[in-house]
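pasting for ref
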Amino acid sequence: MIGKNLRDLLAATERGKLAKVWDECDAAPDDSHLPKGEYVALLEGGKLVTAKTSTPGYCLTFRVTEGEYAGRPFWHTIWLTESAMRFAKRDLLKLGIKDIAELERPLPRGLRCKAQVVLRKEDSGYEYNRVKNFEVLGVEPPARDPFAPKDEWPPSAAPTTVTEAVKAPDAPADAEGPK
């Protein structure tokens, strides 16, 4: 198979810009895991998952919002088994989920959390993060829509507590981003 070259992919001006950016930027560090600690993060969403072992779970996606690791994601899987249900219910109640059927609906947007993240190491030497616990600190106001009327921002109807956010029917959060 013959690959394409930059000339085929990019116009001459784009190729020049790309080469300049390449020359001026530093390589990003490997983002293997976060160090042990407490992180303030935005809960970006949650989705139902199945482990390789067929264990059902609900995976939360967080993104660090403060400090040196701002922008870095981390995940917390809540296992939905009989033996883990007490812990699952504890964590899901923090998000305002009172019924397991609610896991099929999107989470409310803007939940700001504090998570205690630890580092685990498997026998093979593989290291990974695990969320030891988390708490919801509040609800971030929605980002300003540049096309919205300039009368009032944030809107007075914006939720400010987890309870209000859970009740807001138009406040979905998508863990996978826009489609």
